[in-house]
């Protein structure tokens, strides 16, 4: 009899265990699935949007971080501004469709900014630095330096009229550049401490013609420091003139200590 009872208890235990495994858990006992608050979702979406690259305002370096976008395409994107939508990149033949497909999840067009201004900011050829000018398509070290040396300009077309760049190059950059209504003041060196024969010029070419064998520098007449071609200050300070280096030194103007002599 005891053996028989033991068998019954064992069978009952097995049945109970199987029922525990097979029976579904009551709805009230199931753990609620985790939910994300609406505010948190909105914040995450806004954060993701904030991390997108705006093709209407991104810098050359920002654009080059996108897959398939190197120096040439980044410069082309800047030159093709403004854009109403990211599909304009293909419509304007800036990039092929395959490249757009690879970057479209990482770029945007700031609609609010475009609607407010109707256009994007342009580069002022009378005040832009060498590095800024070099970001323009077709403008490398040599042409950027020539643009700086040819200042001031009354209008963008002066670049071609004065043979600073060819017409084809101007056509490629004219939508990205401008001339400020009030260009910087170019003052001749006669207002600086000078000695006999010291002369300042409004263009580097005129200074070079004055002293073919000497180095042409840009003299900042306020700080009395001159800068070499290739420096971001060459031809860009508000008050200055192009001078021959020997005459600049004789006038009491010294070279910038943080620039290497050519």
Written overview of the protein:
With 262 residues, the chain is an alpha/beta fold. The protein folds into three domains: 50-117, DNA polymerase, domain 1, CATH 1.10.150.320; 123-178, Photosystem II 12 kDa extrinsic protein (DNA polymerase, domain 1, Orthogonal Bundle), CATH 1.10.150.320; 189-255, no CATH class. It contains 13 helices and eight strands. It has helices spanning 2-22, 38-50, 60-64, 71-79, 88-91, 97-103, 111-117, 130-134, 141-149, 158-161, 167-173, 204-210, 245-250, and strands spanning 53-54, 107-108, 123-124, 177-178, 216-220, 225-227, 240-244, 254-255. The strands form three sheets. A four-stranded mixed beta sheet has the order 7-5-6-8. Strands 1-2 form a two-stranded parallel ribbon. Mean pLDDT is 75; it is low at 28-33, 41-48, 112-119 and 182-197.
Descriptive labels:
3 domains, 262 residues, DNA polymerase, domain 1, alpha/beta, two-stranded parallel ribbon, 13 helices, elongated, single chain, 4-stranded mixed sheet
The CATH architecture of the largest domain can be named as Orthogonal Bundle
Total beta strands: 8
The mean pLDDT is 75
- Major sheet summary line: 4 strands, mixed
């Amino acid at each position: 009899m005891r053996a028989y009872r033991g068998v019954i208890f064992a069978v009952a235990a097995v049945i109970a265990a199987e029922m525990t495994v097979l029976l579904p858990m009551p709805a009230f006992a199931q753990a609620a699935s985790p939910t994300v608050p609406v505010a948190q979702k909105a914040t995450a979406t806004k954060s993701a949007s904030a991390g997108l690259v705006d093709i209407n305002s991104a810098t050359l370096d920002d654009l080059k971080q996108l897959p398939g976008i190197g120096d040439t395409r980044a410069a082309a994107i800047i030159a093709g501004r403004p854009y109403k939508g990211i599909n304009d990149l293909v419509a304007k033949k800036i990039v092929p469709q395959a490249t757009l497909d690879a970057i479209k999840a990482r770029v945007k067009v700031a609609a609010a900014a475009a609607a407010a201004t109707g256009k994007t900011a342009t580069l002022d050829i009378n005040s832009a630095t060498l590095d800024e000018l070099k970001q323009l398509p077709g403008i490398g070290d040599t042409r950027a330096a020539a643009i700086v040396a040819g200042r001031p300009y009354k209008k963008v077309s002066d670049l071609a009229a004065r043979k600073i760049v060819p017409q084809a190059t101007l056509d490629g950059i004219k939508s990205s550049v401008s001339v400020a209504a009030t260009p910087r003041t170019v003052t001749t060196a006669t207002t600086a401490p000078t000695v006999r024969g010291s002369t300042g010029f409004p263009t580097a070419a005129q200074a070079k013609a004055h002293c073919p064998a000497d180095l042409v520098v840009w003299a900042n007449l306020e700080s009395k420091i001159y800068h070499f071609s290739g420096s971001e200050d060459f031809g860009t300070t508000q008050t200055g003139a192009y001078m021959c280096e020997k005459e600049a030194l004789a006038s009491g103007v010294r070279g910038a200590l943080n620039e290497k002599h050519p």
